[in-house]
Amino acid sequence: xxxxxxxxxxxxxxxxxxxxxxxxxxxxxxxxxxxxxxxxxxxxxxxxxxxxxxxxxxxxxxxxxxxxxxxxxxxxxxxxxxxxxxxxxxxxxxxxxxxxxxxxxxxxxxxxxxxxxxxxxxxxxxxxxxxxxxxxxxxxxxxxxxxxxxxxxxxxxxxxxxxxxxxxxxxxxxxxxxxxxxxxxxxxxxxxxxxxxxxxxxxxxxxxxxxxxxxxxxxxxxxxxxx
Length: 227
Known about the structure:
CATH architecture: 3-Layer(aba) Sandwich
Number of domains: 1
CATH topology: Rossmann fold
Largest sheet: 7 strands, parallel
CATH superfamily: NAD(P)-binding Rossmann-like Domain
Shape: globular
Helix content: 25-40%
CATH class: Alpha Beta
Distance between the termini: 26 Å
Low-confidence stretches: none
Strand content: 15-25%
Number of strands: 7
Strand order of the largest sheet: 3-2-1-4-5-6-7
Mean pLDDT: 96
Order of helices and strands: EHEEHEHEHEHHE
Number of helices: 6
Radius of gyration: 17 Å
C-alpha cells in the first residue's frame, strides 16, 4: 500500500474517523491535504500534510477548494453527520435537509469539482464513507438512511460514468464505529463489537493504492462484531 508521490485530499480529516485515515495515508507516504471547518497544519505535524479550512456547503465552495490544486490522485470524503429518534412521519423537513446536505450534497459538490481534474489525468480514486444503514435501514433513522443511500447510488453512478478515463469510485459501509462521539452517545453499548476506525482507514488506503480503474463501483461492508 505504497502511496509515495500520491496527492490525497481528505475531508473531515481531523474527526473521529478522519484522524485515523489522515494518519494512515501519511504513514503510507502520501501527500495529504486535510479539509475541515477547523483544522491546522500543526494537527498533523508532517511536511507532507497541509490543512485547508473550509465549509463544503455549496458547489462554489467545492470548486474554489479544488481549483487550488493541479493534481489530486484521490478524494477521500469522510464528512457526515447523524440524526435519529423519530419515525419518518414525525421527522422535520430541517432534519431531512441537514442529512441530505451534509451526507449527500457535500459529496456531490466535491465530486463534480474534482472529476474534470481526474478525467484530464486519465485516472484517480474517489472514496466515500457511507453506512450500513444505506442498505439495511432501521426504524427511527429514516433521514440518515435515505441520505446515505443517495450517497451510495451517487458513487456507483460516478463509477459507471467515468470508467472510460479510469477514475474509480468506491464506497465503504461501516457499522457503528468506535469513536469518542459514539461512545459518548451510547455509553452502555458493547464497544467490543464496534468497527475500529483503523480498519476502515486501512481499507481506504488499500483502495487508493490500487490501480485506477481496476476496483470501481464497489460497495464494501465493514461490520466488525455486529455482523
